[in-house]
């Protein structure tokens, strides 16, 4: 059976490990195998546009080496680095967690909010949401102001997630919250319990879609073909 590769484009193994744990409920005996991969050439965290641009070529190289055994690829970074380039390169379905996380949120409720890691992430995300054509349903985006590596500090991170999540819910009137970094995966269930509104973890959303694509035969290989 082919493997669904989830590529973490940063080099922090702890982030990959947290993603792997978050995906456990999606594993089953008759489903595609899910393997989480760390891009050793990436920065510790993807926090700037320069970081996003810099991981594209190593990501494409790593994916090319996995192509023959792949059923699908998921890019586990909320900036979806290299998404369209990998779609051009690969014959497999390629999904980005930002795109899938937002689309999943829109299937749940009218207005979504996003928890960014840093204030500098917000303009980058806003450009992407505009390109997706979803800004009219964006309630708001708030930065927890905790870097990717620091997300492992559970007490500090969860306190900031709950504070910012409540801001999105109460002040921005978000009906559903999307976690804006794959490194937040371990906190989804507890945050949803605290906020009492749906919380979308985007890697789970993307992998769920990817499993469906693989089981249905991959569907359309490329747009327009």
What does this structure look like?
This protein has helices spanning 13-22, 49-54, 56-66, 83-89, 97-106, 121-132, 154-170, 188-195, 202-215; strands at 3-8, 33-38, 70-75, 94-96, 112-116, 138-143, 176-179, 199-200. The chain is α/β, with parallel strands linked by helices and 225 residues long. It folds into two domains: 3-96 and 204-215, Rossmann fold; 99-201, Rossmann fold (3-Layer(aba) Sandwich), CATH 3.40.50.12500. The chain has a four-stranded parallel β-sheet, with helices on both faces. Strands 6-5-7-8 form a four-stranded parallel β-sheet, sandwiched between helices. The protein starts with a strand and ends in a 10-residue tail after the last helix.
Work out the helicity level: 40-55%
The 3D shape can be described as globular
Radius of gyration: 16 Å
Order of helices and strands: EHEHHEHEHEHEHEHEH
What would CATH call the architecture of the largest domain? 3-Layer(aba) Sandwich
Strand content: 15-25%
Biggest sheet statistics: 4 strands, parallel
Distance between the termini: 25 Å
Q: Spatial order of the strands in the main sheet? A: 2-1-3-4
In a few lines, what is going on in this structure?
Helix content is 42%, strand content 17%. The strands form 2 sheets. It has a 4-stranded parallel β-sheet with strand order 2-1-3-4, sandwiched between helices. Strands 6-5-7-8 form a 4-stranded parallel β-sheet, with helices on both faces.
């Amino acid at each position: 059976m082919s493997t669904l590769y989830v590529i973490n484009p940063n080099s922090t193994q702890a982030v990959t490990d947290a993603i792997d744990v978050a995906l456990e409920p999606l594993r089953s005996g008759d489903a595609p195998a899910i393997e989480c991969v760390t891009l050793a050439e990436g920065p510790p965290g993807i926090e700037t546009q320069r970081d996003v641009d810099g991981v594209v070529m190593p990501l494409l190289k790593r994916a090319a080496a996995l192509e023959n055994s792949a059923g699908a690829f998921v890019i586990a970074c909320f900036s979806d680095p290299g998404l369209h380039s990998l779609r051009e390169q690969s014959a497999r379905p390629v999904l980005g967690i930002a795109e899938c996380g937002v689309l999943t949120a829109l299937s749940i409720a009218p207005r979504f909010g996003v928890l960014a890691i840093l204030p500098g992430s917000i303009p980058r995300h806003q450009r992407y949401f505009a390109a997706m054509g979803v800004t009219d349903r964006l309630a708001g985006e708030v930065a927890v102001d905790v870097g990717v590596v620091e997300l492992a500090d559970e007490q500090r991170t969860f306190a900031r997630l709950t504070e910012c999540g409540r801001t999105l819910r109460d002040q921005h009137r978000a009906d559903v919250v999307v976690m804006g970094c794959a490194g937040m995966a371990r906190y989804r269930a507890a945050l949803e319990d605290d906020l009492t509104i749906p919380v979308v973890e985007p890697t789970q959303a993307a992998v769920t879609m990817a499993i469906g694509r693989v089981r249905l035969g991959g569907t359309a290989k490329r747009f327009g073909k």
